[in-house]
Every structure is written in C-alpha cells, then in structure tokens.
Amino acid sequence: MKKIILIFILLTIFISCKNDGLIYENSFIIENVNLIDPIHGLKKNMSVVINGNKMIKIYKTDSIKLSSKNKIYRFAGKYLIPGLWDSHVHFSYERDLSKAMPNLFLAHGITSVRDTGGEFDFVNKFKQDAIQDPKTKTRVMIAGPLIDGKFNVYDGSSKALPLLSIKNSNLEQLEKNALHLIESQVDFLKAYEMLSPEQFKLLAEIAKKNNLKLTGHVPLSMNVIEASNMGLNSIEHLRNIELSMTNESDKLFQERQDILKNKSKIKGSALRSMLHKKQRMRSIYDLDSSKIKRVVEVLVKNDTWQIPTIRLVSSKAYKIYKDPEYTTLLEVLPLDKKKEWIQKINLISSAPDKEIIDYAKWASNMVNFMQKKGISFMAGTDTPIGFLIPGLSLHQELEDLHNSGLSTLETIQAATINPAKYFNIQDSLGRIKSGFIADLLVLDRNPLEDISNTKSIFAIIKDGHYMNRAHLDSLLSHYK
Ligand SMILES: [Zn+2]
Predict the structure, then answer these.
(1) How remote is the CA of residue 234 from the centroid of ligand 1, in Å?
(2) Count of domains observed in the chain
(3) Is the sign of the CA dihedral 413, 414, 416, 420 positive or negative?
(4) What is the whole-number distance in angstroms between the Cα of residue 331 and the centre of ligand 1?
(5) Residue 405: which domain range?
(6) CA–centroid distance, residue 91 to ligand 1 (Å)
(7) pLDDT tens sequence for the chain (480 residues)
(8) CATH no. for residue 188?
(9) Cα of 117 to ligand 1 centre, how many Å?
(10) Residue 452 located in a structural domain
C-alpha cells in the first residue's frame, strides 16, 4: 500500500513538473517574435502576453517557462509592430464607398484613422461604431467639417465638391460653429483655405482654449509663418507653404489679397483653383533657399507637424493608377465602385504632365529637408480621393515617405507613435509596451529592412482581439 502511495506521489510530482511553468489566466501569448517598438526599435525573440485589450507582459522568450496550459501563438521568425494609422482619410468623400471602408482599413492593418473633414453626423457614426465595437472596428478620430470662410470650397454643389465644409461669413458665425463642434466632441479642428486672417486667428484661439489640435491648409489670405505662429499645429499636404518660399512671396501675397476680395463673386472652389493655378508653379519654379530655411525654422520652433500625403501627389504625377496592375489592386473594392473608378481612370490621359511631376519632386524634396531639420510627420493618404484604395494606400504612403528620406523606423513612427502623440494618447497607444492597448500587426517579413514589408500581414490583434489571415481576407469579401 505504502508503495502504491509512493508511486502515486511520484506520479503527481512528475505531472506537475511537466506542467510546471507560469500560467497567464484569461490571456494569450504571442511567443518568440521579433518585436519592433517605434522608440526602441528591434528586439529579437520576445514574447508578449495579452490580457483583455492590453499587453500585460513583454519578456525575452527564454526567460520565462510557460505552462502548456496557456493559449500560445508561436511566431518564430515573424515581426510584431504596433497597429498602423492613416492620419488623413475622408469617410464622407464617396459615401457609397464609406460602408466598406472600416473593413478595408482593418484588413490592411490600419487600426486607427484620422478623418480630416466631413459632415459631423456622418463621420461621427463611424467614430461611435468603433467605440462600441473596438475589437473589430478601426478607431476613428474626427475633425467634423472643414471650417472655411465666406466663399467655402467644399459646398456640396457637385459630386467632386461634396459638402465637407462649413461656410463662415463672419467672426460670430465662426465662433458659434467652432464651439458647436467642440460641444459635439470632435477630436481636433481643421482650418481651410478661404478663411480670413481674423477668422483663422479666432479659430486658433478657440482650439487652444479647448485643448484641441488645429490642423489645416494654410489659408490663402495668409503666409505660412503667420499661420504657424498663430497656432496652426499641423499642415495637410504641405498645402500653400510654397507660396511663402519663393522670391516673389510678398508680391504673390498682395496679388492674393486682391483676388480674394472676389468682386465678381465666383464660387469658392473656382476662386481657390484660380489662385493655385496662378501661384503654385510660379512659386515652385522660383524658390528662394533662404526663405525655405526661414519657413522651416519657424515650423520647427512652433512644432508645426506635417501630413504630406506624398502618395496623393506621386500617384497623380506618375499616373500610377494607369498601370494595368492597379486594376488588380482595385479588386478589394465593392464591385460597383471598382467599375466606377476604372471608368474614371480610363478617361484620364496617360501623357505625363511636367508641372505635376515637378511639384511631386518638390514635395518629396521638401519632406527630406524638413525631416533633416527635425519636423514631425504623420503618414496620411487622403483616401478615397485620387483613386487611393482605403487601407492599401497607407502602405504606399509609407514607401513614399521612406523614399523621401525617412528611415524605415522613422516611417513606422509616422504611422504609430506620432499620431498617438498628436492626440495625446501616447501613454496607452502606438508602442509595444506593457500596459499599452494591444493594437498589433504580425508581419511575415521585416519592415526595417524593406518598408514595403508592412504589407506582409500574417495576423492582426485589435484591442486584444486576434484575427488570422483567413479572417482578414473574409473581411474583404463581406461587403461585396
Ligand atoms: Zn483631405
């Protein structure tokens, strides 16, 4: 009998030894990946414990012995990066595409987006959906409508000019509209091109007082230095900065003031196009290096960030959408939308446009110069404008940012930690760190070696919810 008990005791010890090791209850473990934190860079052979929606422990794989009772995903040789942001999207630009956009974003590893202009109720619905269902929906930060001046550009008058903006004829209206947006809990504000300097100044004061970032295009009535000094926290598409970087900047400024009086009362969109046409390339072809230096110094001093949307320009310049291969990429779109885009693309000439190519080169060189001077960037696309495919286009933007001079790690920062900093949520999002929200991508290949490897998505973890490749592919067929 004693012998039997002894055998029993020995057997029990053997079993518990076999299972000896840590158990993380109600968790899962991403084991043995090469982790790329946007601040610390690459760490090899690491494991990450995810509990609920957070990472609760990160450790060198061989430093902890795990019990086999844990739920473990073994990913030797793969790479882990934070979920990506597209910091410039428009849900309401093509409303018939908007329903497909959340899945398109998520399936491409875009776990957060920043909507830079659209009717409040329309874009807020996407934001609220994501708050309700963070495990399967991409996070959405919204500006609500563009805040524009008396002759607003996006006035809803045609399909090419959907109602993305609020017209403000005077200061009182602007104050009322801005405060209403703030009460409605927008995440930031966006100033547009037809604002007067007085309107812009008031808007910047309101934004600052309410602790919100003010982004925008430099108003045509101002120069970029003035706008930055007044409190423009970030600039989209480098819009209108070249007008302050040319030999003739003072003359162009005067010319704009006269035209902006708009005596013949033409529409805001026509007025804006006319000014761009008259002044953009004139500026690009007559740059003054001392003025460029001065402008960039001011942007650095004021910490004015840039969302250069390089792919939007390069795609138009090099007619990337005319490449037959692009039709294959459009397969992810809903069928009707794919057909519509192909028809529109077919109407565009393949002949190169020298001015647009020169502008694209300038934009890329400007990013390079600004990067060296210490300006912060966010990766954004403007999708679905310019036939840029929601989700996929962010990866193309990363390639363009890298080709413009950002290192691969800096490029990853522009789509992870930088937008988190922009929204002041950098203590919970945008890194691979214990206590942070588990928005993560598992990649087959190393994006530090080749930035296009951000596309090699093996799995996604959103708010602690694991989705494998098959699941992500099924997201892409949902809305078809
Ligand atoms: Zn935009």
Answers:
(1) 13
(2) 1
(3) positive
(4) 24
(5) 84-430
(6) 10
(7) 555 555 554 444 344 444 579 999 999 999 999 999 999 999 999 999 999 999 999 999 999 999 999 999 999 999 999 999 999 999 999 999 999 999 999 999 999 999 999 999 999 999 999 999 999 999 999 999 999 999 999 998 888 898 899 999 999 999 999 999 999 999 999 999 999 999 999 999 999 999 999 999 999 999 999 999 999 999 999 999 999 999 999 999 999 999 999 999 999 999 999 999 999 999 999 999 999 999 999 999 999 999 999 999 999 999 999 999 999 999 999 999 999 999 999 999 999 899 999 999 999 999 999 999 999 999 999 999 999 999 999 999 999 999 999 999 999 999 999 999 999 999 999 999 999 999 999 999 999 999 999 999 999 999 999 999 999 999 988 665
(8) 3.20.20.140
(9) 7
(10) no
- Does 11 map to a domain? no
Q: Is residue 320 part of a domain?
A: yes
Ligand 1 centre to CA of 148 (Å) is: 14
Q: Distance between CA atoms of 370 and 84, rounded to whole angstroms?
A: 22
pTM for the full model?
Answer: 0.94
- Asked if residue 419 has a cis previous peptide bond (ω within 30° of 0), the answer is no
SS3 353: coil
Residue 57: its H or E element: strand 54-60
| Distance from Cα 385 to the centre of ligand 1, integer Å | 8
Name the pairing type of β-strands 79-82 and 440-443: antiparallel
Rounded CA gap, 321 and 318, in Å? 8
User: 333 in a domain, yes or no?
Assistant: yes
Ligand 1 centroid to Cα of residue 382, in Å, is 5
What backbone phi and psi angles, to 5 degrees, belong to 458? -90, -40
Span from the CA of 383 to the centroid of ligand 1 (angstroms): 8
CA 89 to ligand 1 centroid distance, Å: 6
